[in-house]
Structure to design on (170 residues):
C-alpha cells in the first residue's frame, strides 16, 4: 500500500504533481470531486481534464469517494482530487460535521489499504486568517480534521507551495 497526501494552497501545484506521479502507471483512475456550479468552475474543471492522459479513467464523484476508491481496480494508480471540494459538497448537502469527519476517516482507511499507489489532493485552509463567517470557520475546521485523518494513515504527506514540496514528518 502507498498513500500519498498532497496538501497546499490554491494553485500551489498539487494537482499537477499528482498527474506527474501517475504518468508512469499503466492503469490510472482519476476520482474528481468538483462540480461545475458556474462558468468559472466549469472552465477550471475543463483545464484539469486537459492535463490528464486520455487513457485514464475519470470517475466524477462529488459525494461518495469511499465507494469510488473501493470500486477502483486494485492495481490502478488512483488520484483523488480533491478533499477540499468533497467536504464542501457534503456541507452543501446538509451533512453534519461528525458525519463528514467519520466518512473522511473511513475513506482515508480505504485509501490507505489499497495495494496500488493512491494520491489524494487537498487544500490547506488553516494557515490564513480566521474566516469571517460561521460557515467559513466550520468549513476550515472540518476540512482540517478530514485532512488530519488522511495524513494520519498516509505513508507520505507533502506540503506543496509554489510548485515545491516539503515532506511532513509524523
Amino acid at each position: 500500500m502507498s498513500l500519498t497526501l498532497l496538501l497546499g494552497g490554491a494553485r500551489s501545484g498539487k494537482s499537477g504533481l499528482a498527474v506527474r506521479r501517475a504518468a508512469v502507471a499503466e492503469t490510472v483512475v482519476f476520482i474528481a470531486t468538483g462540480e461545475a456550479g458556474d462558468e468559472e468552475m466549469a472552465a477550471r474543471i475543463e483545464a484539469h481534464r486537459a492535463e490528464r492522459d486520455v487513457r485514464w479513467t475519470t470517475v466524477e464523484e462529488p459525494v461518495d469517494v469511499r465507494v469510488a476508491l473501493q470500486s477502483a481496480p486494485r492495481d490502478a494508480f488512483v488520484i483523488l482530487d480533491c478533499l477540499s471540494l468533497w467536504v464542501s459538497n457534503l456541507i452543501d448537502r446538509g451533512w453534519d460535521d461528525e458525519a463528514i469527519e467519520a466518512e473522511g476517516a473511513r475513506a482515508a482507511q480505504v485509501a490507505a489499504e489499497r495495494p496500488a499507489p493512491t494520491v489524494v489532493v487537498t487544500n490547506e485552509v488553516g494557515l490564513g486568517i480566521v474566516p469571517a463567517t460561521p460557515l467559513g470557520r466550520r468549513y476550515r475546521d472540518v476540512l482540517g480534521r478530514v485532512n488530519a485523518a488522511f495524513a494520519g494513515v498516509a505513508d507520505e504527506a507533502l506540503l506543496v507551495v509554489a510548485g515545491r514540496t516539503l515532506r511532513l514528518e509524523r
In short: The domain at 2-167 is CATH 3.40.50.300 (Rossmann fold). DSSP finds six helices and seven strands in the chain. The radius of gyration is 15 Å.
